[in-house]
Design a protein that fits this description.
The structure is a single chain. With 359 residues, the protein is an alpha/beta fold. The chain is 38% helix and 20% strand. It has twelve helices and twelve strands. Strands 2-4-1-5-6-7 form a six-stranded mixed sheet, sandwiched between helices. It is flat.
Length: 359
């Protein structure tokens, strides 16, 4: 499975600049509203130091990291769900995404005008975007209900769906995003791809001082709690493009931070969505695979190929750290660190696995 993240925000909040930096793309990032017209997509490898280590250990020809797909859509404005600005059609481009990153401007810069030329106001900006996402979901449910109501006359199971959607509609109409509903039945609404049902991560775009301003960060974190908040500088992320890891680490340290915006986002997304990765290794390739926490070995095998899950026999598992300490698979096996696990085994984050299957 590949993780996909939709990036939303008002015009001129640093959204496309952040996207450019995260993906090393050079799409237009202009200081005027609607510089991004069509959605831009970037597929980014997830940095993982373990892959290089395993590649040396196995003499692997290829390294294939897990990936994150970022989708950057046009800046939204109040009324986007009704066609204002560049309209609701751009929201459709992020319906397939696993999570939404909301880039919020939290810096002052007279050279970069807000789309409405109003003062910088993170709370108001968040409310505008949340309202547009809620209105878009209301529209989606209202479009679905008439067909379901007709079906319900002949298909009793559809009656439960109608009743549930009507309940959700009431919540949305009262301004409640679906992600705040504790027992949300995600299976029942899966095919609707409702935007407010997706987890949201707030990326506050701050200036240099804001990167280490704990008071500001505490205020902004409280503003969006319990959602995850992170703080980055689109300007700094742009400066990091093309630097070697050592140069990037040195630049980050000079700003008083330890992680790039990309790593912050990946960690936040994995944590918010309950994801982890496991590793496969051999002479041909080493690879990281993204799965949900709590998945069993057969489910994890199914990410490689459905036949692996269907015909699962067993998994040969060794912890990454144990394997590296041993120096080889043979040595790990000789010291009892490699083990055979069955269908009920729950995968762990540092598992290096070889699946046995028969179809």
């Amino acid at each position: 499975m590949s993780l996909s993240i939709g990036i939303v925000g008002l015009p001129n909040v640093g959204k496309s600049t952040t996207f450019n930096a995260l993906t090393n793309n050079d799409i237009l990032a202009a200081n005027y509203p609607f510089a991004t017209i069509e959605p831009n997509t970037g597929i980014v490898p997830v940095p993982d130091e373990r892959l290089e280590v395993l590649a040396k250990l196995y003499g692997s020809e290829k390294i294939l990291p897990a990936t994150v797909t970022f989708v950057d859509i046009a800046g939204l404005v109040a009324g986007a769900s009704k066609g204002e600005g560049l309209g609701n059609k751009f929201l459709a481009n992020i319906r397939q995404c696993d999570a939404i990153v909301h880039v919020v401007r939290a810096f002052e810069n007279n050279a970069i005008l807000r789309h409405d030329e109003a003062p910088v106001n993170p709370r108001a900006d968040i409310d505008i975007i949340n309202t547009e996402l809620i209105l878009a979901d209301i529209q989606t449910i209202e479009n679905r209900l008439p067909r379901l109501q007709k079906e319900a006359k002949a298909r009793p199971a559809a009656r439960e769906e109608v009743a549930y959607l009507q309940t959700l509609l009431e919540q949305l109409q009262s301004g409640v995003p679906l992600s705040s509903i504790a027992d949300l039945n995600t299976e029942l609404i899966q095919d609707l791809h409702l935007l407010t049902a997706k987890p949201v991560i707030y990326a506050f775009n701050v200036d240099e001082a804001g990167l280490t301003d704990t008071t500001l960060q505490s205020e902004l974190t409280s503003l969006v709690a319990p959602a995850k908040a992170l703080f980055l500088s689109a300007k700094l992320e742009e400066e990091l493009k093309g630097l070697s890891p050592a140069e990037a680490a040195e630049l980050l340290e000079s700003y008083g931070v330890t992680e790039t915006g990309l790593m912050q986002l990946i960690h936040a997304a994995y944590g918010t969505l309950g994801l982890q990765s496991y590793l496969t290794a051999g002479p041909k390739e080493v690879r990281a695979w993204t799965i949900h926490k709590g998945w069993t070995a057969p489910q994890a095998a199914g990410v490689i190929h459905t036949d692996f899950e269907r015909g699962f026999i067993a998994a040969q598992v060794v912890d990454y750290h144990d394997l590296v300490s041993a120096g080889s698979e043979a040595a790990a096996r000789a010291t009892g660190k490699m083990r055979t696990e069955g269908k009920t085994y729950v995968m762990q984050p540092d598992d290096v696995v070889e699946f046995r299957f028969n179809v």
